[in-house]
């Protein structure tokens, strides 16, 4: 009952909502103002952080393989993916496609490849970081289960929150050089934003805004939802999303 009353308030007392609708278009705004919802945002002098014209090259030899295990929600995991690429660049390592942990709240067992276009991801970053879908056979043992059963020399579990680039070169690089592989877990928020080389910051942006795209069927669903919001059928006034 309370929810229905909230929805009816704009129609019962339109004058109360008129100032808000002028300031920020909403579903209660007149048709001419609804168009403002879909206009491109003013850039406000912001510039793109990921320049496609920047040159990058891979060293001939990788220092080894980096694994990361990402927990949290999808947005937190997305940030972790950006950080993982950056750490691989800092260490001149080959990144294994990140492992997404099962979220204890949503119980979602989706993998990286279920959500993101992995071939696009690898291709966009091919000149910046070496990325592979799977470990070579000689490292078949390096799994989540392997690290959960005992203390392992190849697992890095002491990475501080917002660690510096120097921390990784001092603590992770020796493991790579000794064993050829380093698994970092936990990894959420384990790379700093401040005092980071500009090329690493730009690489993070490139990962987030260019390399990470959803698989085709997720993009198609998103396009369909936006289309129905922008061009609703005359007889359809509302659309409910249940998550």
TrEMBL record:
Gene Ontology MF terms in the entry: glycosyltransferase activity
Superkingdom of origin organism: Eukaryota
Keyword Endoplasmic reticulum in record: no
Signal peptide, first to last residue: 1-23
UniProt KW keywords: Carbohydrate metabolism, Fucose metabolism, Glycosyltransferase, Signal, Transferase
InterPro entries: GDP-Fuc_O-FucTrfase (IPR019378), GT106_glycosyltransferase (IPR052272)
Segments traversing the membrane: none
GO terms under biological process: fucose metabolic process
Family statement drawn from the similarity comment of this UniProt entry: Belongs to the glycosyltransferase GT106 family.
Protein's UniProt name: O-fucosyltransferase family protein
Organism name: Sesamum latifolium
């Amino acid at each position: 009952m309370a929810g229905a009353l909230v929805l009816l308030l704009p129609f019962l007392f339109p004058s109360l909502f008129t100032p808000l609708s002028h300031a920020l278009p909403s579903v209660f705004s007149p048709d001419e103002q609804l168009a403002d919802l879909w206009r491109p945002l003013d850039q406000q002098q912001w510039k793109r952080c990921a320049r496609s014209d920047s040159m990058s090259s891979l060293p001939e030899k990788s220092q080894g393989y980096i694994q990361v295990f990402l927990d949290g929600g999808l947005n937190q995991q997305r940030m972790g993916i950006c950080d993982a690429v950056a750490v691989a660049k800092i260490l001149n390592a080959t990144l294994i496609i990140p492992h997404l942990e099962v979220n204890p709240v949503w119980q979602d067992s989706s993998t990286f490849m279920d959500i993101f276009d992995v071939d696009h991801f690898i291709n966009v970053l091919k000149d910046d970081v070496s990325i592979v879908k799977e470990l070579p056979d000689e490292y078949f043992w390096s799994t989540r289960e392997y690290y959960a059963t005992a203390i392992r020399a190849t697992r890095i579990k002491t990475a501080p929150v917002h660690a510096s680039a120097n921390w990784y070169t001092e603590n992770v690089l020796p493991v790579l050089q000794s064993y050829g592989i380093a698994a970092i877990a936990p990894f959420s928020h384990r790379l700093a934003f401040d005092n980071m080389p500009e090329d690493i910051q730009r690489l993070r942006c490139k990962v987030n805004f260019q390399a990470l795209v959803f698989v085709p069927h997720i993009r198609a669903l998103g396009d369909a939802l936006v289309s129905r919001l922008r061009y609703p059928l005359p007889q359809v006034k509302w659309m409910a999303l249940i998550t």
